[in-house]
Amino acid sequence: MASTSETPAPVSGITEEASSEAVPAPQTSTSPRSPRSPRAPASPSQSHPQSPTTNPQEASSAEVPEPNVIGVDQEWVDDADSALGDDVSTYSASLTSEVWKHSYEYGRRYHAYKDSSEYIRPNDEVEVDRLDMMHHIFKVMKGGKLFEATVPKTVQRVLDVGCGTGIWTMDFADEYPSAEVLGVDISPIQPNLVPPNVKFEIDDIEEEFAHPQPFDYIHCRYMAYAIKDWPRLVQQIYNHTAPGGIAEFTDYDLTYRSDDGTLDGTTLKAWGDDMPRAGRMIGREPCPGLHLETWMREAGFTDIMHKVYKIPIGPWASDKHHKLLGAYNFVMLNQGAEAFSLRLFINVLGWSYEEVQVLLAKVKRDLKDRTIHAYTEMHCVWGQRPV
Ligand SMILES: C[S@@+](CC[C@H](N)C(=O)[O-])C[C@H]1O[C@@H](n2cnc3c(N)ncnc32)[C@H](O)[C@@H]1O
Could you tell me the Gene Ontology terms of the biological process aspect for this record (predicted)? Predict the structure, then answer.
């Protein structure tokens, strides 16, 4: 993989050293973008080339397109072999009514594709909003970047594995208008109106991938508690990465920690210990971030880079960057605490619904407690499939 030449701009006055650990300098720096309002698809016009900066009044008449006439891209018309075009029919065919069904439990909505109890988190509007907030947290954490690897502007085939609401998929497609970007998830929570170079499919990523043609860049983010067989998934991602292509993972070590002992003995700590225990009881790794580098190496990836970010719980940090990150994380956790807990505590650990609600009240009290200085860690690991 090509090595870096640029260091990302510090966020809110803090240095790169202050925002992460074990940092091999990342590659291309992208400027921070304002978050898209949740669920709003990009306008198709966003992926069109920008107007020339020349004042149209001064341009010669030959350069000025007629108003209200939309030019036809002849290359697109002539490209009968377009992979995107081919896939559209596969996509339409795959959208059977089964994937649009949902199941309901404890007052929350869950996916119903295959066995609905497989994935422990809901997929309702509250969860969708939380995932979009989480997307913003990832971007703040990475200094405004959508990803860490160097992805050439000419990248063609991109896959977002477990794409959730599709917000990353669409942001990437906006930045890389010439790429075809496919998002796959088990839940139908993606918008219908999407940029022309984006496509979503409902599928189980633990099954064989449906697309035999390899991808130039595969992205897989925030799948803690979701995956039964991580080494198999990482191997499958390797097998579907084109020689010379890149795969990138971003995932949690969801161990709740504090460096000054302020988390010790709190309900927040007990909650933070019980959830991973329950996740492991049903074979869903809560801390995949810790193992990603090993799994990638075992799968065959080379030139592996690994970066670790701390994410404070609450705005307790003294530097502006971590204070902001912690504030967003507080909002996200406060909103997500129920979604994380219901199936793990009731279905796995055998608690009652009422007991969980009492626990959540105490957890939310601790989340607001200014004397508790807790954080979790996020691992970004990326590498190349050898040519
Ligand atoms: C925590 S969300 C992360 C979503 C997205 N990657 C992001 O970073 O915003 C995990 C996603 O994995 C999806 N998921 C869980 N198990 C899956 C499976 N076996 N196949 C496909 N998607 C799955 C869930 O539906 C959910 O949207």
Answer: methylation
